Hints:
Keywords: Membrane, Transmembrane, Transmembrane helix. By secondary structure, the chain is mainly α.
Amino acid sequence: xxxxxxxxxxxxxxxxxxxxxxxxxxxxxxxxxxxxxxxxxxxxxxxxxxxxxxxxxxxxxxxxxxxxxxxxxxxxxxxxxxxxxxxxxxxxxxxxxxxxxxxxxxxxxxxxxxxxxxxxxxxxxxxxxxxxxxxxxxxxxxxxxxxxxxxxxxxxxxxxxxxxxxxxxxxxxxxxxxxxxxxxxxxxxxxxxxxxxxxxxxxxxxxxxxxxxxxxxxxxxxxxxxxxxxxxxxxxxxxxxxxxxxxxxxxxxxxxxxxxxxxxxxxxxxxxxxxxxxxxxxxxxxxxxxxxxxxxxxxxxxxxxxxxxxxxxxxxxxxxxxxxxxxxxxxxxxxxxxxxxxxxxxxxxxxxxxxxxxxxxxxxxxxxxxxxxxxxxxxxxxxxxxxxxxxxxxxxxxxxxxxxxxxxxxxxxxxxxxxxxxxxxxxxxxxxxxxxxxxxxxxxxxxxxxxxxxxxxxxxxxxxxxxxxxxxxxxxxxxxxxxxxxxxxxxxxxxxxxxxxxxxxxxxxxxxxxxxxxxxxxxxxxxxxxxxxxxxxxxxxxxxxxxxxxxxxxxxxxxxxxxxxxxxxxxxxxxxxxxxxxxxxxxxxxxxxxxxxxxxxxxxxxxxxxxxxxxxxxxxxxxxxxxxxxxxxxxxxxxxxxxxxxxxxxxxxxxxxxxxxxxxxxxxxxxxxxxxxxxx
Length: 680
């Protein structure tokens, strides 16, 4: 990092600047004194000033070669440059030895010579001083020569190229300041040219040189970056300064065509995307994404002046206005595709383009709200409406883009899309109605004060189209809301997001029905709108209830056993069943039909190998050892009255245990099963 200047160094630099200015003033006083005393004639004054400038330049070069660059050397160079410029101005304006064109050519030659000196001695301070002097000296000459206005425009680009060649590692801030100063020079030239264009409008090629500076700023930041500074500082030379030049160019280029800034901005954005594509340097790649996002955000607002200018002086829509809106929508669609594959700042970009889209279609919004303003609908309105509908459909299909956004942000853009859809659908429907059945307003009266009712008997074509358009919008909104509420969420998605969005859209559609459609629509369209929307809401209620029932059934099946007789069987592994007084292992001995069915596994206490006490009569299968003999049927004897009595007693105890408390079931299980079943 560069060390800060000491107090002594600051004093030396200030002395150099003051010395240069004082020397220049002293030389001017000397020339004036020679004129007053008659010692020097016009030629002597001009030649003497030129010799004085060369002497200062020679002294500076000698010191620079021997002792290196220092503030005093830069002061000598700058003073020599100022003396030469003053000498040229004297020869042109006082003696008229040079024409305005000759002055511009000579000044351009001197500019190139001193820039070469700065490159040779690697002196960025000299370039900065020359740019400052340019702000006070050079400018377009107010005559009817295009060359005299064009030649001064080449000074800033040439100085900008010098910042590429002269190393900026030791003085990065100085290099950034010089580049920004070249942009200020271009802005100054464009402002001065804007005054000239009031008197002569044949300067269409002059602002094009300023656009060369825009591209040089972008290229310089890509291939000759100033890495010692942060990316935010570099944004001034690659984003803010070029954008300011393009904005200022409207003052001059408006007389030629407002499409020129659009083309230049689009070319600059494309250039950034191409130059930064697959950049291997991580710093360049990150800065490239920022630059691309910024220029993509600037691009939509360059369309707004074009659209406003095309429709400013026409009551009806015009072909240029229609073309500008359609081109804007096409470029917007391309930007949506680009945002899917580039790590751009999506939310600011979408916001900028949405705001610009609102301004692009602002002339069609009043006719969407008031049917009386839609009587001049034409094929141009139909083209804009269809283009807007097609664009919204294409934008809605970019699922990968929308899923990358947060749900709240996604819902905001979805709401904006719904509002834009109203303009598109109603505009297209109104235009179709007017084209199918032209209105009879002009036939009934030639004065706008007389309404349609006094001239026409029934509703006109554009009115029917207006009603049908709003009918389609209301039904579409309600259908979309119904689909979002009823549809099953995809795996991994938030199940509440779609329902909340559908509920919000349903509320908006209902509000539109009550607040707008009820008063604005009439006849069959109003009847169809309310009936269909009501049926859609009923369908939502029915289908939603069915889905909730199916979901509840699936939850019961997932949490319990598969019911065999229509009743849900409790889960044998759910302890809540035992706590509620329900036996999870019912006595199946009372159900002969399921005597041979496979039984659930025995429950075991943690840390032991003995099963929990339960009824073992109903679930025992196969031989089991007895105290005296092995029985193939279980622990009970098969013959005699004693066996029948014990079997009957076991059955009664099992039924009682199935209907009693857990303690009773445990006791009955021990009594019936015998001492072998007792874990104790």
